């Protein structure tokens, strides 16, 4: 099973990963990070297919995908 992790403190909440996810399991959190942004997070980790589209789209390289 694939695992996606986000460095929530560095995420600026741009939402590019949200639109890139083919399974629509990435969303912006309602919580704020240390920088005052709503960071992205995976809502249903078990549905992740490990495509890494989210990590490819991230301009700040805060996403790690493990297969």
Outline the secondary-structure elements:
Layout: E1 3-6, H1 16-20, E2 26-28, E3 40-42, H2 53-57, E4 63-66
Antiparallel strand pairs: 1-4, 2-3
Task: Give a written overview of the molecule.
The chain has a single domain (3-66), classed as Alpha-Beta Plaits. The chain is built from 2 helices and 4 strands, in the order βαββαβ. The protein has helices at residues 16-20, 53-57; strands at 3-6, 26-28, 40-42, 63-66. It has a two-stranded antiparallel ribbon. A two-stranded antiparallel ribbon has the order 2-3. The longest helix has 5 residues, at 16-20. It is globular and about 30 Å long.
Provide a compact summary of the structure.
The protein is an alpha+beta fold. It is built from 2 helices and 4 strands; from the N terminus they run βαββαβ.
Keywords:
alpha+beta; two-stranded antiparallel sheet; two-stranded antiparallel ribbon; 2 helices
- How many strands appear in the DSSP assignment? 4
- CATH architecture annotation name: 2-Layer Sandwich
> Biggest sheet, strands in spatial order?
1-4
The major sheet is characterized as: 2 strands, antiparallel
Strand content: 15-25%
Based on helices, strands and strand pairing, what is the structural class?
A: alpha+beta
């Amino acid at each position: 099973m694939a695992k996606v992790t986000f460095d929530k403190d560095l995420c600026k909440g741009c939402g590019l990963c949200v639109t890139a996810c083919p399974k629509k399991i990435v969303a912006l959190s309602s919580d704020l990070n240390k920088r005052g942004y709503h960071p992205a997070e995976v809502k249903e980790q078990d549905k992740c297919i490990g495509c890494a589209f989210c990590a490819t789209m991230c301009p700040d390289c805060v996403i790690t995908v493990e297969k």
